[in-house]
Specification:
Elements: H1 13-28, E1 32-37, E2 43-45, E3 48-49, H2 56-62, E4 70-75, E5 80-85, H3 90-96, H4 101-109, E6 113-116, H5 120-128, E7 133-136, H6 142-156, E8 168-171, H7 172-181, H8 185-208, H9 215-228, E9 233-234, E10 239-242, E11 263-268, E12 270-272, E13 275-276, E14 279-284, H10 291-309, H11 319-334, H12 342-347, E15 374-375, E16 378-379, E17 387-390, E18 393-396, E19 409-412, E20 415-419, E21 424-426, H13 435-449
Helix pairs in contact: 1-2, 5-6, 8-9, 8-13, 10-11
Bound molecules: glycine (GLY) and manganese (II) ion (2 copies).
Length: 450
């Protein structure tokens, strides 16, 4: 019997397969034991906590969403996965909600063993004894570093009884990063759903925007769309940046009252079942781009198009960025915002005055997801199953030599791409990107509101 209703259990097959793959990788690299804890709960103030979010690595391996948990994986001829979690506590469940407890968690989440988290300090030294390698994430969390250190020292203290501590420590996150970089079918299915929810949220936000409204009102429309479609949270703080605020790359104040003639840049995406989406759209608050806004918008759109064309298996990571930079640099020369030859503007990096960030990042459980961008010093080739963003932009602050008509707006267009065997699939195209499509959506929304 339980004092609170249980949350739904996810399909366990992908999580089990990932644990097995990690243990196979560990075995190939000398065997040993891995310890992967989940994230701690964090106090917001006094007795109130920030909304809980599990650790991405832990959840990738377990699908288990409760705090105060860790998974231990033992590589070997008979690999074993062992969960440590909160004990069942019907009194606490009346206050804080359901908890599985080890017995139900073992059975429902497919572990070989499960124990209470309170047992970990006692059991870990026994588990570490005679293991050649300890795979864990040192240097990320001081409490866990201390806990692991204590367990290692407990094994060392027993050396005269013939037990041998692990002689080598390896970063389990490095293995997991490589695994996480290539998404499996269940991850891609979730990411497509997250992307569709976010694209619909951007459409809703565009339709709701008009002069006189505040940025936070549009943020509320995004949150409504995310939550009412079942997403648990925004994947990162939503950027709703009108006029000059769009030139602040990480603007999250979202307080300004918007005026006719402003551009509004929205960078927002939901998190669904642990997976992020990440979309940026830029559009006119009054429904029509003015001349300079349209000129810059078309340059960024053309840059995005060039970058999108460069996303395919075998292309290296930086090719989309190089393609986007070239188009933006030429566009800014044509608009006389930059002077000199294309070669000079590229070589001297002068375009960085207006385009100072990179064209994308890996996307997955984290909005800036796991995985190296270079291998042995070279940009890594794109492979099927990788997911990345394509997000060129252009930001124009008041400056000498820049005509006033261009001051105080920023444009970014960001979409999420899955690399496929033959090219790529853009999963966020449900939100309009062309000038015509954006203006049509806003016109229809304004007509409907009359
Ligand atoms: N929203 C964060 C980013 O675009 O990188
Ligand atoms: Mn992004
Ligand atoms: Mn973004």
């Amino acid at each position: 019997m339980s004092a609170a209703p249980a949350p739904p259990v996810p399909d366990l097959a992908p999580f089990k397969a990932r644990r097995e793959r990690l243990m196979a990788r560990m075995l190939a690299a000398g065997g040993g034991i891995a310890v992967v804890p989940t994230a701690p709960e964090r106090a917001r103030n006094r007795d109130t906590h920030f909304p809980y979010r599990f650790d991405s690595y832990f959840h990738y391996l377990t699908g288990f969403g409760e705090p105060e948990a860790a998974v231990v994986l033992v590589a070997g001829e008979t690999p074993r996965s062992i969960l440590f979690c909160r004990e069942k506590d019907e009194e606490r469940e009346i206050w804080d909600g359901f908890r599985y407890g080890p017995e139900a968690a073992r059975e429902l989440f497919g572990f070989d063993e499960a124990w209470t988290i309170g047992d970990l300090d006692l059991r870990l030294p026994q588990m570490l004894a005679d293991q050649p390698v300890l795979w864990c994430g040192f240097g990320y969390d001081r409490d866990w570093d201390d806990r692991i250190t204590r367990a290692l020292n407990a094994v060392r203290a027993n050396a005269r009884a013939g037990t041998v501590p692990p002689h080598s420590l390896r970063d389990v996150r490095a293995e997991l990063d490589e695994m996480r970089l290539i998404k499996d079918a269940s991850e891609l299915a979730t990411m497509r759903r997250a992307a569709a929810i976010s694209a619909a949220a951007h459409c809703r936000a565009m339709a709701a925007t008009r002069p006189g409204r505040h940025e936070y009102e549009i943020e509320a429309e995004l949150l409504h769309a995310f939550r009412s479609a079942g997403s648990q949270a925004p994947a990162y703080p939503s950027i709703v940046a009108s006029g000059p605020n769009a030139c602040v790359l990480h603007y999250v104040g979202n307080e300004r009252r918007m005026a006719d003639g402003d551009l509004l840049l929205i960078d927002a995406g939901c998190e669904l079942d642990g997976y992020a989406s990440d979309i940026t759209r830029t559009f006119p608050v009054g429904g029509r781009f003015n001349g300079p806004q349209r000129d810059v918008y078309e340059i960024v759109l053309a840059a995005q198009h060039a970058a999108r064309e460069a996303v395919k298996p075998g292309a290296h990571w930086n090719e989309p960025h190089e393609a986007a930079v070239k188009v933006i640099a030429q566009g800014l020369i044509d608009l006389k915002l930059l002077r000199g030859s294309l070669e000079h503007v590229l070589e001297a990096g002068e375009y960085r005055r207006f385009y100072m960030h990179r064209t994308g990042h890996w996307l997955g459980r984290d909005v800036h997801d796991a995985g190296e961008y270079k291998l042995q010093g070279e940009w890594r080739p794109l492979e099927a199953g990788m997911v990345l963003t394509v997000e060129p932009g252009c930001y124009i602050r008041p400056a000498e030599g820049v005509p006033e008509a261009f001051w105080n707006f920023g444009v970014r267009i960001e979409d999420d791409a899955v690399v496929t065997a033959t090219g790529c699939e853009f999963i966020t195209d449900g939100a309009p990107r062309t000038v015509d499509a954006i203006e049509a959506l806003m016109r229809e929304a304004a007509d409907a509101a009359q």
